[in-house]
Amino acid sequence: MAAQEWIGGIAAALTTCSFIPQVVRVWQTRHTKDISLLMYSLFTAGVALWLAYGILLGAWPIIVANGITLLLAGMVLVLKLRFG
Q1: Taking Cα atoms as reference points, which of 32, 54, 81 lies closest to residue 16?
Q2: For 43-72, what is the mean pLDDT?
Q3: Neighbour count for residue 65 (Cβ, 10 Å)
């Protein structure tokens, strides 16, 4: 595996995993007052487009990373709508 693939894989893993603490925190506390609905809506839409882009390219690292990120960011968005 080339160096750029390692860097891309690590970057994808870190940015994707960064959403896990937020999902856990919101799930546990049900507190979403300080989460911006507009930001999470725009971010989730952007991630969905990145996922579509990855699918069109057939680029599995983009597909996997953005598929997981879409799930996690979507969960925060749904919890914001539910508890916000």
Answers
A1: 54
A2: 94
A3: 24
